[in-house]
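#dry-run=false #mode=assembly
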Amino acid sequence: MNTPISWLKAYVPGLECTDKEYNDRMTMTGTKVDGVERLDKNLEKIVVGRVLSIEKHPDADKLVVCQVDVGEETVQIVTGAPNVFEGALVPVVLDGGRVAGGHDGGPLPENGIKIKAGKLRGVPSAGMMCAIEELGSDHNAYPEAPENGIYIFPEALGPVTEAETCALAAAGKLDSEEARAMNPVKPGMDALELLGLRDTVFEYEITSNRVDCYSLLGVAREAAVTFGKPFEEPDVTPAADEQGDVNDYISIEVKDPDLCSRYTARVCKDVKIGPSPWWMQRRLSACGIRPINNLVDITNYVMVEYGQPMHAFDLDTVEGHKIVVRRAQDGDMFQTLDGQMRRMDHDVLMICDAEKEIGIAGIMGGENSKITDEVKTVLFESATFNGPNIRKSAKRIGLRTDASGIFEKGLHPTNAEAAVNRACQLMRELGCGVPVKGLADVCEPIPDRVRIPFNAGDINAFLGTDYDEKTMLDIFAKLEMDYDSEKKEVVVPYFRQDVKAMCDLAEEVARFTGYENIPMTLPGGESMMGGLTYKMRVQDKAREIAMFNGFSEAMTYSFESPKVFDRLLFAEDAPERQAIRIANPLGEDFSMMRTTPLNGMLTSLATNYNRRNKDARLFELANVYIPKALPLTELPDERSMFTLGMYGEGDFFTMKGVIEEFFQSVGMKEKMVCDPKAGRPFLHPGRQALIRYKDEILGYFGEVHPDTAGAYGIGGRAIIAVIDLQSVIPHTAFDYHYTGIAKYPAVSRDISMLVPKAVTAGEIEAIIAQRGGKILESYGLFDIYEGAQVRPGFKSMAYNLVFRHKEKTLEEAEITAAMKKILNGLESLGIELRS
Amino acid sequence: MFKEELEKIRKEAQQRLEQSDSLDKINEIRVGVLGKKGSLKDILKGMKNVPAEERPKVGQMVNDVRVEIEEAIAKAQKTIERKVQEQRLAAETIDVTLPAKRMARGHSHPNVIALKEMERIFVGMGYEVIEGPEVERDYYNFEALNIPADHPAKDEQDTFYINGDILLRTQTSSTQIHAMESGRIPIRMIAPGRVYRSDAVDATHSPTFHQVEGLVVDKGITFADLKGTLDEFAKKLFGEETRTRFRPHHFPFTEPSAEMDVSCFKCGGKGCSFCKGEGWIEILGCGMVHPHVLEMSGIDPDVYSGFAFGVGLERIALLNYEIDDMRLLYENDIRFLNQF
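#status=ok
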């Protein structure tokens, strides 16, 4: 939504403020200004000049030397423009002035271009004549400007305000010499003023609840209340002297009132197409709308003012002079006025005549009823269509227009009548056509105005304020809300469809007493214990341990491509493939909710590898989404996963250490067991393990399979671990117990073994732990060797065992007995003891 | 005669000690004077010629000299030891400007740093931190938040749907409803989490990002409480000198609604390129929980009121750490992460 301040002032005449004040105060009352464009930005010392004479430049074929009357003096200007002629009135930038851009209409430089007197090919030139592009605008906004050349003013602008036009129309002199001679253009005048560039255009971010503010009048109402100035609503009551009867021209039938709560139409005859007056063109172009002709300009002008899109039909093309509003048939093809053939369906509302469809309601008219310059009688449609239906239809057809964008917000039926009357008023004022008396109107009952019980105490209690009743009622009055003092009810005007309940009244009070004037307090009431959930505590521990071990926290997307499963070499029937699909994804790469965090981690490692980062260690704490059944009827299981990945320095056992450290830090006192039979296809078959704890599987880790690493573009060996935190949590505890520091001496024994290759350290340690008894305090592998000195099929391993009794010094016999039990057990695994 | 000889020994020992420059030389002196075959022993051997009544006196003299020499030796020894140590320490001088040896610690994600800051602030104010589902029912994401089926806000948010009823939540506000439905009042909670919107990836958009939702419901909660709480939050997050500004706005599930700006933390509100000359930076959306929303979740709006707010975590992280491209947050390049 854009509004030039000059147009707003037409309805809020008392509005006097700087651009900054307007910006700040409107923003603070809820009409957020999103952009401010001063149309005369970087334009300085630009006046009207009359070209008195043109002579050839002595040294340049393409240049001419002009004497230009700029009011108080005559200056010499050298130009290369092809279209200047003796007597032409042109914008001239004087020595020391500034223009916005170049004549070729490229991007405007930040600070414009400074113009200085100088010499062109040896001939002095005291300024420059300007093309419209040099004034920061273009041919679209000023259709009369030449495509290539200096802007030429008319000898007079004609009427420059709506009031002047009105006065001429009333006197029957619209098409007179007198009218054309109004507001003559003279040398020395401010060219920017004449061009309507002494103006500022504000752009707003209008919230979706304020349909009324998608119109200039709506914004003007807000501005009036914000600045405490009166709002002067235009009087669009049809003139008393209108002739004829609209019902002789048109009949209307609405077959689907659920999609069209009101359809109004008015007719104007004796239509004369021509350019619209200066003031209308300037206002439209300031809003970014290209002036076309009086009829098109009027519908656009009313759309800006009232926020009511209208459609103009050539009545002679409307068969049977009848409008029928009905749903389309499934599969109907319809050609819109942009020439495109489009497929309709049963939920699209069509505007039809007695024979055929002539427009898509609220979206776009049809090619078959397109208005031409030969139009004699015009039919204005001003209707209220069902907002959500327009929105959905526009989406299905794939055609969103300015009109549909407004209709979808849900207009009030009262607005339709006001807008069509305004259009007819302008038709008459501009001499564009003669309105026929009467309004053709098919209307569902218009809902009564909303009444809201008012109690100043309730509003104060809600806001935490202490305003008196009068302050509040004054605000309501300015907002055109009536007060029924008997029933103590506020009666809301039709255009404020957003105000429905006490909280909405409270908002109005807050907005216009100022949000900044509401005090700041902290909630009272009983004090409460804050804190994290238990799961968050475990996650924080995971973070702490991962970071301590050099892993940095990563974040990856929750959705990915189903192709990921093939990359990860998952079997066709792998449960991971049972993933939730997004019905309307951004693309295949974002189409499936992940069931494993692997892809995100491997992709991140690959990113680092490709960018030649030598070592990388990353972890992520995020969810996977496991459906209970597909298609989804219940919400899925969102499981928090702790994923670690690394390449570069460190190996499988580094990762194992991190996992053990994490388990220990969350109070998991038992030893975790690594089961080599993990069966993960994306991991190295000989370097992977399931993480078992108390016989439950909590995750897996291992070296990434070279094929998988290759598929992701990771060149080195990468290690990855996936821990299912949801399964870990039941085993965790944050209860610490002190067990006393041993007072009695420890006894250390070493065992050196020749171990068959197939026997794992895990098996050996299980025997040591189980057979060592209470007095075994700890054990640890201190040497492992496979190679030339060791018999083939065997490896050499050496453990250190530490025995200690809590209450006494151990006796040799006790240690010997424990050792014997251990050694016997080890021998049963086929292990030979070395001396 | 003894006296002269003792004096000679003493003087000679002292002289030699003074000239000694190593522990070995001092030891030589000790052996030569105090040792079994040392000069003092020689003197004691001559004692047999001394008359018995004078022996104690001579003995005393010898002993005095011995003590004196021992002390002198100890002193000399200490001097040399100190000198040796000084030399060793001097030789051990290192270049303290050489690079440090650091443990390769891991780094936090900027989102997490921002989140932990916010958690710390709100937990300190007595808020619980809770979670809600990311894959959510339409009802919780829209309808219960006053966004019925045909509401244009449903389009504005460009929702990812799984099917007609289940979607990826577009806002953590859905967690509000779960908290209110639990029936435990008063409520003071924040709910961080992932949300999803159908925005293509670019420097300022991501189809998945994070929000932190806040909700307070109790008897007598006012808009003033909302302002006070969020002003406190802003001061704790951005510094005590921070000022806040509440602008009217619209959200379907709060009324009145506001957007909160904070004074630009780069220029302090004077206006700079960071705040685009505004002096203010938009931080969050908030408002009084719409009575209809309370009602739908089984809370009587005539008895209770509440306020809610929602903060974009990425927005805070990008602003606070001056990160100019949102994509960096999801690429996980360690050269980026190492800066946090």
